[in-house]
Amino acid sequence: MAGVLQARSGQVQLLGKDWAELRGGARDARRADHVGVIFQQFNLLPYLSVLDNVILPCRFSKLRASRCQRGAQQSARSLLERVALPATLWDRRADALSVGQQQRVAAARALIGQPELILADEPTSALDAARRDSFMQLLLGECANSGSSLVFVSHDERLAPRFDEQLSLPELNLAAAP
Amino acid sequence: MKALLHVALRSALNRRGTLALVVLSIALATALLLSLERLRTDIRSSFSQAVSATDLVVGARTGPVQLMLYAVFRVGGATNTISMDSVRAVAAHRAVAWVVPLALGDSHRGYPVLGTTVDYFKHFAWGDKQPLRLAQGRTFDGTLDGLYEAVLGAEVAAQLGYGLGQKIVLSHGLGGGGGLDAEHADKPFTVVGVLERTGTPVDRSVHVSLQAIEAIHLDWGGGAPIPGLQIAPEHARKFDLEPKQVTAALVGLKNRAAVFNVQRFVAQYEAEPLLAVLPGVALDELWAAVGLGERALLAISGLVALVSLASLVAVVLAGLNERRRELAVLRAVGAGPRQVLALLALEGALVTLAGALLGALMAAASVVLAGPWIQQRFGISLIASAPTAEQWALFVAVLAAGMLASLVPGWRAYRLSLADGLSPRT
Question: Best mutation site among A51, A56, A63 for testing chain B: the one with the most B CBs within 10 Å?
Answer without folding.
Answer: A56
